[in-house]
Amino acid sequence: MHPITSIRSCTVVLPMDDVDTDQIIPARFLTTTTREGLGQHLFHDWRYDHDGQPKSDFVLNSDAARGCRVLVSGRNFGCGSSREHAPWALLDYGFLAVISSEVADIFRSNALKNGLLPILVDGQSHQWLLDHPGTEVSIDVAASTLVLANGRAIEYPIDSFARYCLLEGLDQLGFLLRQEEAIRRFEESRSWTP
Amino acid sequence: MTSQKSGTIFDKVWSQHVVSEETADTPAVLYIDLHLIHEVTTPQAFSLLRERKLPVRRPDLTLGTLDHSTPTTPFRSLADLQSAGASAAKQVTTMQDNCREFGLEVFAMDSPHRGIVHVIGPELGATQPGKTIVCGDSHTSTHGAFGALAFGIGTTEVGHVLATQCLLQRKPKTLAIDLSGPLRPGVTAKDVILATIARIGVDGGTGHVIEYRGGAIDAMDMEARMTVCNMSIEAGARAGMIAPDDTTFEYLYGRPRVPQGPAWDEAVARWRALRTDTDARYDKTLEIEGAELQPMVTFGTNPGMAVAINEPVPGYNGSSALRKALEYMQLSPGKPLSQAAVDVVFIGSCTNSRLSDLRQAADIMRGRTVAPGVTMLVVPGSQQVKKEAEALGLHDVFKAAGAEWRESGCSMCLGMNGDTVPRGKLCVSTSNRNFEGRQGIGARTVLASPMTAAASAVRGRVADPREFL
Predict the structure, then answer these.
(1) Is B141 helix (H, G, I), strand (E, B) or coil?
(2) Roughly what angle, to the nearest 10 degrees, separates helices B394-401 and B355-365?
(3) Which residue among A19, B3, B121, B159 is the one 20 to 30 A from B336 at the CA level?
């Protein structure tokens, strides 16, 4: 993973609540055995019509959305399945962060492990962002702040370990592998074995 | 092992698996007792192991099956995999190759133990009280019905567990849902969980582990409890748990992978302690009156959009989400769902594909036929369930009614294997998700119990199962 210290981008707004992972990446695209190339299927059934042509009324197909790396979505983004293909598809498409007032647990965990930043904001800031598509935002990962175009800085919650890994570009497996001694001791000390 | 003075069942299972405690800077290292794997969410994890030249740390705690991408038509040779599509076939063969390379047990296509991952774990007795169980699948919450702490993980975490048998986790909060009994006739575990999600919303459990308790839960058999815990994730919860009791121990007794002989008695003694202490605190609590529940159906595009079957579909009330959902579903506010014509009925999935589910559906189908124009697919949860159902003659009941009787797998729950609902068609389904396109592009899903699904197949309209009792 590459270190991520800051993001500056315009926003794309997907205002609906409860955007589930079946919308982010439909199940029929999960038969892949790699993680590359999923961006072409991101939001596939909202993005393309029956003939595979881009739907003009879907936000990702608008000129304004082009090049924007930050997605603002309604509440409870990423609910549903545990498929890591969802953050893989968002990253492969080019998104670096998702802002919402609530992000589903498994999606949030998966996103952080891949360098996709889930940013939770309060209801009022969330509404402002939903009402201002295309606005310029900047994210300071070390300070855990989202700065709006008007200069207002919003501090967002993030697990300190996940933030450290993002800033250093570390994956968490290395940390776990270094726990080997403790894991072995745990196994030996158990009064029952699974 | 830390023994807590007072705690919930979740607290107890959690604390028994902490390798190192969480701090402000680092999450807890949590030990995993059983890692279930399947073909869809593992190939990239095995690639990671290969890149890092790592072995699987505990092959003996890892169990593989093939379920999501597998065809449900009879399997005779590898060529039959192609019926689910070339990439699905490749995924299945990749899984088998990976398991061979890393020395892992996997139930191959022709294994009598193969089936949906959340059906075979309990069936084999690999799922046990007090274990931590993970799988790259959100419905891993199913196993919590046994008093295990079981939750879905992503593929990166699958790699972590393969390599270290551990996960980095922050301790979730707890939510107790008290479900009083008794349930009325025709009201099943599926209706209980759909009503619960309708009450708390699809994010009502986010950040929490739910413990289900109360008279309605106590009275349920294990298969019903699995149905309840299975859909915890549809309320956004990390996991669902039910304290083990005699019903749990009777279900597990004699199954191939439970402790045998004196070890069984020791295990039961240990399992009996897995109860929430009377003075333990939950972060949130909720009470639901079981006797007031009705058979439930979903009308929208997430599992929280559900009503009692005899209630009208609610109005938009200014909600753009409801408007969008009802437009997709081609349903009108104010009208009961019983007016909606049914095209497809699916009985299956990790939610409702066990023997009792098939039996409940068959009891309604017996001597009746699937309505003209309706396609009905019955997909047992495992090859073992299929065998048991056939021994009872349930397959003959379904086939005589005009339904298709298939091999086990996830099938039409998510349509990865080619079993899909055609565009625009309405499917009454015993599965767990009614998301847009979940069962096929443009498919319209109504989630319901096996009884409601069977009644709907007979009527050709969304039907109240109590008409058949």
Answers:
(1) helix
(2) 40
(3) A19
| pTM assigned to the model | 0.97
> In this structure, which amino acid lies at residue B452?
T
Q: Give the helix, strand, coil percentages of chain B, each rounded to 5.
A: 40, 20, 45
Facing B24 at nearest CB: one of A79, A160, A175? A160
Tally Cβ neighbours within 10 Å of residue B51.
Answer: 9
Measured in angstroms, the CA of A75 and the nearest CA of chain B are apart by: 9
Which residue type sits at B445? T
Q: Is A123 exposed, middle or buried (0-12, 13-18, 19+ CB in 10 A)?
A: exposed
Name B176's bridge partners: B211, B285
Contact B95, B64 (CB under 8 A): yes
Distance in angstroms (rounded) separating the CA atoms of residues B420 and B414: 8
- Regarding beta strands B208-213 and B62-64, do their DSSP bridges make them parallel or antiparallel, or are they unpaired? unpaired
Between chains, do B25 and A191 touch, taking CB under 8 Å as contact? no
> Between β-strands B426-429 and B344-347, what pairing exists: parallel, antiparallel or unpaired?
parallel
Q: How many whole angstroms separate alpha carbon B373 and alpha carbon B74?
A: 25
Q: Which of residues 160-189 of B touch A (CB under 8 A)?
A: 160, 163-168, 170, 172
What DSSP character marks residue A48? B
Inter-CA distances, A32 with A168, B90, B169, Å:
29, 8, 28
Residue B182: cis peptide before it, omega within 30 degrees of 0: yes
Number of folded domains in chain A?
1
Residue A1 lies in a domain: no
Give the pair of three-digit tokens for residue B288.
């639901």
Option in B91, B138, B437 nearest A81 (CB): B138
> Do the domain assignments include residue A180?
yes
Distances (CA, A) of B437 to A44, B249, B305, B323, B415: 10, 40, 16, 17, 9
Instruction: Give residue A138's domain range.
Output: 6-189
Q: Is A182 on the interface with B (CB under 8 A)?
A: yes
pLDDT digit string, tens, across residues B188-230: 999 999 999 999 999 999 999 999 999 999 999 999 999 999 9
**CATH number of residue A24's parent domain:** 3.20.19.10
What are the pLDDT digits (tens) for A1-45? 789 999 999 999 999 999 999 999 999 999 999 999 999 999 999
Q: Is residue A194 part of a domain?
A: no
Of B218, B206, B279, B278, nearest in space to B243 by CA: B218
- Within 8 A of A15 by CB-CB distance, chain B residues are 320
A106-110, A190-194, B129-133, B289-293: lowest mean pLDDT where?
A190-194
CB A137 within 8 A of CB A8: yes
Q: Does B52 touch chain A (CB under 8 A)?
A: yes
Residues of B in contact with A163 (CB under 8 A): none
Cβ burial of B301 (10 Å; 0-12, 13-18, 19+) is buried
Read off the tokens for B211: 């413990």
**Domains of chain B (ranges plus CATH)?**
9-169 (3.30.499.10), 173-243+271-292 (3.40.1060.10), 296-468 (3.30.499.10)
The edge-to-edge listing of strands for the beta sheet with A6-14 is: A117-120, A97-100, A70-73, A6-14, A136-140, A145-147, A153-155
